[in-house]
Each structure stands twice: as structure tokens, then as C-alpha cells.
Write a sequence for this structure.
């Protein structure tokens, strides 16, 4: 595993936008979604078009909204963790949460760095990021390891290890967990 000192975490803002853009546009990057699946209302036209998703998330950055963290190794962006204000996340959790919540919506890690405990590092950094952005709570909707489907929203065990507490089941597999800051 890479040591924490070898990995640098930075929030996505105007100074890191080009790195975020490069990571998402890379060959294995998530440019197909731009982490907008949980952020765009279903009534938006053209929401499936990548240019719209990219423009939408870039506007959020230009507006100064927190959208998440990038991980760097040797000054190259290698991973991403989405951390957004709850009220901007469509259907992450269907109940109205406590006030002042950030939602950790998903992870993306370049293939060569997967299985290196990035989720645990990101969760730790997301907690700090949420605190620095004035949140009182950090919410996540991970799955268990044996759940079918993608696991881009993380694994329950990683969040529980960090101190997140179960609040309810969402759908068949996602567990809504919350961390009190």
C-alpha cells in the first residue's frame, strides 16, 4: 500500500480543476458520468450528455461549492472522492436529513492503485474536509462486499471502521450511514 505521506489530497476548486478534468477525461476515468448521477435532477434535459455533465460540475466549482477531493501521487491525480452538500444530491438518501450535511457520494481510483486502502484514506480526509466546510454531519450510502453491482459508493466496513453509524437501508443493498462531526 502507498503510505499516506506519498499521497497528497486536495479539494477540487478552480486551482485543481484542470487536474480533475484530466483524471475524468483519462482513458479509464469516469468521464461518462462526471459524478453527476446523484447530482442532476431527473427533469433536466440532456442530462446524459457528457458535455452537459462536465459543464454542470464545473459551474458548481466556479460557484465555490465543495464537490470533493483529489488524491495525487507524484503530482499526478490518481483518485477522486465526491463530497457534496446533501441538498445538491438527488436521491442519495430519500429522507430529509439533519441540517448541515455533506454527502460522500462515490469514489474513483485509477486501476493501478485499486485495492490499496484508498477508501479508508479518503474517508478520513472527507471527514476533515466536511469539518473544514462547516458540516455537522457526513453521510454515505455504501454497500456490503457481497452486494451485487458496482461498489463506487464504498463498502460499509470501511465507513463503520471510521465511526459512521447505520441509520437505515436504502433500496436492497445501500446502507445510509452518518458520521457526526
Amino acid at each position: 500500500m502507498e503510505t499516506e505521506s506519498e499521497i497528497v489530497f486536495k479539494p477540487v476548486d478552480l486551482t485543481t480543476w484542470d487536474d480533475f478534468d484530466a483524471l475524468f477525461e483519462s482513458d479509464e476515468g469516469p468521464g461518462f458520468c462526471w459524478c453527476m448521477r446523484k447530482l442532476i435532477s431527473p427533469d433536466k434535459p440532456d442530462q446524459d450528455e457528457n458535455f452537459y455533465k462536465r459543464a454542470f460540475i464545473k459551474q458548481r466549482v466556479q460557484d465555490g461549492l465543495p464537490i470533493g477531493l483529489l488524491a495525487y501521487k507524484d503530482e499526478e491525480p490518481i483518485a477522486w472522492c465526491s463530497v457534496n452538500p446533501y441538498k445538491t444530491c438527488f436521491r442519495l438518501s430519500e429522507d430529509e436529513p439533519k441540517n448541515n450535511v455533506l454527502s460522500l457520494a462515490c469514489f474513483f481510483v485509477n486501476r493501478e492503485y485499486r485495492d490499496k486502502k484508498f477508501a479508508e484514506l479518503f474517508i478520513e480526509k472527507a471527514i476533515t474536509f466536511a469539518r473544514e466546510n462547516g458540516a455537522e454531519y457526513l453521510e454515505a450510502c455504501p454497500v456490503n462486499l457481497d452486494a451485487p453491482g458496482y461498489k463506487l459508493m464504498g463498502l460499509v466496513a470501511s465507513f463503520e471502521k471510521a465511526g459512521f453509524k447505520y441509520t437505515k437501508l436504502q433500496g436492497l443493498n445501500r446502507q445510509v450511514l452518518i458520521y457526526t462531526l
Remarks:
- The helical segments are 17-25, 50-62, 118-132, 156-161.
- The chain has one domain: 4-180.
- Residues 118-132 form the longest helix (15 residues).
- The beta strands are 7-11, 68-73, 76-85, 101-109, 137-140, 165-170, 174-180.
